[in-house]
Write a structure and sequence with these properties.
15 helices, globular, 4 strands, mainly alpha
Length: 383
Amino acid sequence: MRLRFSLAFAVLLLAGCPFGEDEGGLPRLGLMDGGGRLDRDRDDRTAPRDDDLDPTLPPPITPPRDGDAGPDDELVPPEYVDGGAPGADAGDDELVPPDFADGGAPAADAGPGSPPATRCYEEPVFPSADVSDLVSAYGGSDWKDDLISIVARRWPGGERLLEEQRDDSYFDRFSDSSSWSGMMEELATLVHEETHLFNAYHAQREGRSHSLYVRGDLIVYPPAMEGFARSEIHSMVTVRPSSYASLYLTGEQGRRGFVALLDEASCYINEMAALAVLGDQYRGSGFSSRDGSVAFLYYIELYLRRAREAHPEFWEMARADETIREHLLTQWLRVHFFLPHSDRFSSLGIYDGDFRDAMHEPENVAELEMFLGVRLGDSPCVL
């Protein structure tokens, strides 16, 4: 374990600091979210991310690249088609937008009596793509180019995230360019924290209240719908031990609401996606790459139950919002798309099995199904 994680508990005590604003109203970092990253070779198993940042230094806002899609172009519906997403040469007519009211949208050639099409999530991933040329030639001088190249080769959906954030003040601090193995070991931290930053800065550039990075062609803009403090679900969590609950559902973090819960989930899901297809490059003894993504889907289920039972007006308002429903469905299916890739590597999870069991408890799945109006299972497809 490298020195950067040696002060785990000291950082954990400070980890709840939210994004603040500088004098110009731009978001800045105090300390990041704490990250709840667990490492298998630590006795305390609560090593957070590298959060010892200068609270007075605002990261620069990376200007949009030439040709960037505008807000209307970036909210792309997930590729729900028969048996999965279309290939790279698929036309727009192959995309079937999700229909949350019934069993699914019919296929393009389906007649009135045809059964609904199966809706599945898929995005381009190439877990077997050869990266030996990048590994053997690595020298560190062009490490950002090398890092983005390997991500683009295996997980194209993450390329835009790292490319747009590469000049962020903290990009270097979230990585370790001293060696290839060091860079790969810190990839999850980098993807997680830069997702937070992309979400904050992109929303501000686009004049939106919030944005959530799913992949390069899918940026979601949830409404300003804060809901209630997520600390209200702390007592509902049954998974023990749970450093995530202690970190995210108490104190300053616990005062955050619904969209912040979605934001944290997006960061954990993206970090799992990155390591799921690059696990062969990870040389550590083990850490919680999978844990956060399934933990936060479980927390979302509990949040929806609490909303329905104690905050029915918020539950109805959130359920009526198509962007929220579509995003939650996408993230459930997306996690189940990446889990089989991640499961190839036992070192990429610690307590993920406990959270997966809780996430798949019938009463918890039913809560999400009730909200979405679809049937869900342990797969990237709507049942």
